[in-house]
Specification:
Layout (H helix, E strand, L loop, with lengths): L27 E2 L2 H15 L3 H5 L6 E5 L6 E6 L2 E8 L5 E5 L1 H7 L7 E4 L1 H8 L4 E2 L3 E4 L8 E5 L5 E7 L13 E8 L13 H7 L1 H21 L5 E4 L4 H12 L5 E6 L5 H13 L3 E6 L2 H11 L8 H18 L4 E4 L8 H5 L3 E3 L6 E4 L7 H10 L25 H7 L4 H16 L5 H4 L10 H11 L3 H5 L12 E3 L4 E3 L2 E8 L5 H7 L7 E4 L3 E4 L2 E4 L3 E6 L2 H19 L6 H5 L5 E4 L2 E4 L15 H5 L3
Parallel strand pairs: 6-9, 12-13, 12-15, 13-14, 15-17
Antiparallel strand pairs: 1-2, 2-3, 3-4, 4-5, 6-8, 7-11, 9-10, 10-11, 16-17, 18-20, 19-20, 20-24, 21-22, 22-23, 23-24, 25-26
C-alpha cells in the first residue's frame, strides 16, 4: 500500500518502508491503459505471463515520470521500484526491469535468462561473478550490457547482473566474466501476500488527506481575509492540480470566480471538461480566449515554441488572461493557482505567494504548494470527482496539444487526434522547410530544442547517420526577418550636445510609426516616404535612426523607446497586452494586430509593458 506523508502504516501501525524514487519523485497512480502497456512490454521482452506476474489485478501501480532521464518512467509495485520504461527515438517504448522486478517474474521468465552450471553455482554461492565456464544456458537475444537474471540448474533465481560477453561468443571465449553480478536474490524479501488496489490506498490515507485539505482551505480563507478589497478567483486549466483548487473552494464553502484560459491550443476534451465541470458546480466562469490562427502566424516569425523559448505562453495564455482579468478585475485580484513545488526546480524555488509581471495587480497564491501528485489524485478519488478524460488515455500532464515540454511519447500519442493538432504539426513542418532544416528535425521532434542537447544527438545521430551540424544547420534565411537594432557605441558632438546613430535590420513604415509616437508625448513631423521626426530623434524609412540631446543616457534611451514602439506596431503578435492596459481605448485590436487612435492617446505609457514580440522576435 502507498503511504504518503507518514512513516507509519495506517493499516497495521508498523513502520513504513521508504521508496527511494529517483528525482523528481512526483509520484502518481497508473491508469488501466498504462498498466496494460507495462504488462505487454514485459510479456514481449521476458516471456508470456511475466506481465501479470509483475502486476497482478489487485495491485496499485505507481509511476514516476521523467526519472532516470527524460522520456523515462520509473515503475513502482508493492513498494518496490521494479523497473523503468523509456520511449526512445525509434518511437517505441522499451522496458528494463530492476532486481525486484526480476524476482516477481522469475516463474515465467524465458528471455534475458542465464542458467549457471554446477561449477558456476559453486562460484556464485561464494558471491563471485559468473564466469564463462560456469554458464549452462543463455538467451541468444541478450546483448552486452543488458541486465539479465541468473538461475541455478534447478531453476531457482540466484542473482541479477550485467552481461559482459555476447551469447554468440560464449563458445569461443575460454575465460572471462560472463555476468557481472549486481544484486543477490534474497528469498522472502518481497511480500506479495496483500492486495493493494488504489481505492484501498486512498481509504487508508484518508485521515492524512483530510488534514492536508484542512490546511489548504485555511490558507485560502486566510489569504481572502488579508486582501478584503479585491475579488478572489481560481485559475482552472482543466488539469488535475487546478481542479483540486476548485474542489478545495467547495470544501471551504467559498464562491470564487473561475478563470479559464482557452489558449486556442487546448485539447477539445479539456475545453469541454472545464465548461461542464464549472456548470455542474454552478460557478461563475470567465473564459480568456486567444487566437489559434494568430499563433500559427506568429510561428512563421518566431519559429515553433521550444524549451526555454515558450513565447506561446505569453501570446496565447498569460496575455489572454491579463486582458480578460483587466476587464473583470480592473483593481486587481487574488488568484489561487495550482502550483506545486514537486513539479519542477523552478517551482520548487517559488514561494507560496507571488506576483507575475504579465498580470496587472494580481496576487497569486498556491494552496497546494507542498502537495505531490499522489496527494492530488488521492483527493480527487476521495471526493469521487470526475477528471479530465485525457489522463485515462495515458497523458501524465494536461497542457497544450503540442507543448515543447511534452515527452516525445506524448507527441506521438497525440498525432491525428484533432484537426488543430494536425494544423499545428504541419506548421512545424512548413517552418522547417522554410529554414532548410533536414527532415529529421521534424521526424525526431528536434524543434523542441533551440540548441540540440548532446544527449539527444547521441541517440538521434546513430539512427539517421547525420552529424550534429547537419541536424541543426538552417540553410535558408527567415521568410520574414525579425526587426533588430544596432546602436553605435560611440557618439558625435552636435549643437544639442550628443548625436547617436543606430541602424535597423530592415525598412520601416514611418507613417504608422508617427501615429504610435503619440504614446511618447513628443512633437512629430512626417516627410512622407523619407523620415519621421519624434522630438530630437529622426527615423528614416530605410531603417536609420539619429538621436540627439544634451544627455548621452537620454539620447540612447530615446532610441530604445522608439525601437520598442516600432516592434509593437510592426511585429504585433496579437497578445493584447498593451491594448488591455490602455485606459482611454486608444489602442484596439483589429484582425489580431494592434491599432492606435492618436486622438484618444494621453501619452500615459501604460502600454509600455511586457511584450512577447519585443522579447522573442530578436531571439
Amino acid at each position: 500500500m502507498a503511504v504518503v506523508s507518514s512513516n507509519k502504516c495506517p493499516r497495521c501501525g508498523s513502520k513504513a518502508e521508504e521508496v527511494k524514487a529517483s528525482n523528481p519523485a512526483d509520484l502518481r497512480p497508473a491508469f488501466k491503459k498504462e498498466t496494460e502497456l507495462i504488462r505487454n512490454l514485459v510479456d514481449e521482452k521476458y516471456g508470456r505471463g511475466c506481465g501479470h506476474d509483475l502486476i497482478p489485478d489487485d495491485r496499485t501501480v505507481i509511476m514516476n515520470d521523467n526519472s532516470r532521464g527524460k522520456n523515462s518512467v520509473e515503475i513502482i509495485v508493492d513498494g518496490k521500484i521494479v523497473g523503468v520504461m523509456r520511449f526512445k527515438y525509434d518511437m517505441k517504448w522499451h522496458i528494463n526491469l530492476d532486481p525486484p522486478g526480476f524476482e516477481m517474474i522469475a516463474h515465467h521468465m524465458v528471455r534475458y535468462r542465464v542458467v549457471a552450471n554446477h561449477s558456476g553455482l559453486f562460484m556464485l554461492k561464494k558471491h563471485n561473478n559468473l564466469m564463462v565456464k560456469g554458464v549452462s544456458e543463455c538467451d541468444k537475444d541478450a546483448a552486452i550490457d543488458d541486465r539479465v537474471a541468473v538461475f541455478s540448474p534447478k531453476g531457482d533465481l540466484i542473482c541479477t547482473g550485467i552481461l559482459r560477453i555476447s551469447p554468440s561468443e560464449i563458445g569461443n571465449a575460454e575465460r572471462g566474466v560472463f555476468v557481472k553480478v549486481r544484486d543477490w536474490y534474497i528469498k522472502g524479501s518481497i511480500d506479495r501476500s496483500r492486495s493493494t488496489n488504489w481505492e484501498q490506498t486512498v481509504r487508508w490515507n484518508s485521515k492524512m488527506m483530510e488534514r492536508m485539505v484542512k490546511e489548504a482551505t485555511s490558507f485560502m480563507k486566510k489569504m481572502i481575509k488579508e486582501h478584503p478589497n479585491i475579488p478572489y478567483a481560481i485559475s482552472f486549466s482543466g488539469g488535475k492540480d487546478s481542479q483540486v483548487l476548485v474542489m478545495l473552494s467547495k470544501d471551504a464553502k467559498l464562491k470564487p470566480t473561475i478563470v479559464f484560459a482557452d489558449t486556442g491550443l487546448e485539447y477539445p476534451e479539456t475545453v469541454e471538461f472545464v465548461k461542464s465541470y464549472v456548470k455542474r458546480n454552478n460557478m461563475k466562469l470567465i473564459v480568456a480566449e486567444a487566437s489559434f490562427e494568430s499563433f500559427l502566424n506568429n510561428m512563421k516569425t518566431f519559429g515553433p515554441p521550444a524549451e526555454g523559448y515558450r513565447w506561446c505562453c505569453k501570446t496565447n495564455k498569460l496575455s489572454a488572461i491579463a486582458s480578460a482579468e483587466s476587464e473583470a478585475f480592473p483593481n486587481g485580484s487574488l488568484q489561487f493557482i495550482g502550483q506545486r513545488r514537486y513539479e519542477s526546480l523552478n517551482r520548487m524555488r517559488n514561494g507560496r505567494v507571488s506576483t507575475n509581471p504579465w498580470m496587472i495587480n494580481q496576487i497569486s497564491a498556491s494552496p497546494i504548494q507542498e502537495w505531490n501528485a499522489l496527494h492530488v489524485w488521492m483527493y480527487i478519488t476521495l471526493r469521487k470527482e470526475p477528471f479530465n478524460p485525457k489522463y485515462a488515455e495515458g497523458m501524465p500532464r494536461i497542457g497544450c496539444m503540442l507543448c515543447p515540454f511534452m515527452s516525445i511519447s506524448e507527441i506521438e500519442m497525440n498525432k491525428g487526434t484533432s484537426e488543430k493538432f494536425d494544423r499545428w504539426y504541419q506548421g512545424i513542418v512548413d517552418y522547417g522547410k522554410s529554414r532548410g532544416m533536414p527532415e529529421e528535425w521534424v521526424k525526431y521532434h528536434l524543434w523542441r530544442h533551440r540548441e540540440l542537447p548532446m544527449e539527444v544527438y547521441d541517440e538521434v545521430g546513430p539512427l539517421c547517420g547525420k552529424t550534429y551540424e547537419e541536424l541543426t544547420k538552417r540553410t535558408l534565411p527567415p521568410v520574414k526577418e525579425p526587426l533588430k537594432i544596432n546602436i553605435q557605441s560611440g557618439y558625435s558632438p552636435c549643437v544639442l550636445g550628443y548625436s547617436v546613430e543606430a541602424g535597423l535590420s530592415r525598412p520601416v513604415d514611418i507613417a504608422r510609426l508617427q501615429k504610435f509616437a503619440k504614446i511618447l508625448g513628443k512633437e512629430t513631423a512626417l516627410e512622407e516616404g523619407m523620415y519621421v521626426s519624434i522630438g530630437n530623434l529622426t527615423v528614416y524609412a530605410e531603417g536609420a535612426i539619429i538621436s540627439k540631446g544634451d544627455d548621452l543616457k537620454d539620447v540612447k534611451r530615446a532610441i530604445r523607446s522608439v525601437f520598442e514602439l516600432l516592434v509593437k506596431s510592426e511585429e504585433c503578435c496579437g497578445c493584447r497586452q498593451c491594448s488591455s492596459r490602455c485606459p482611454t481605448g486608444a489602442l484596439t485590436m483589429v484582425s489580431d494586430r494592434v491599432e492606435i487612435d492618436p486622438s484618444k492617446c494621453i501619452s500615459c505609457r501604460s502600454c509600455f509593458c511586457m511584450c512577447p514580440a519585443l522579447k522573442y522576435s530578436a531571439e
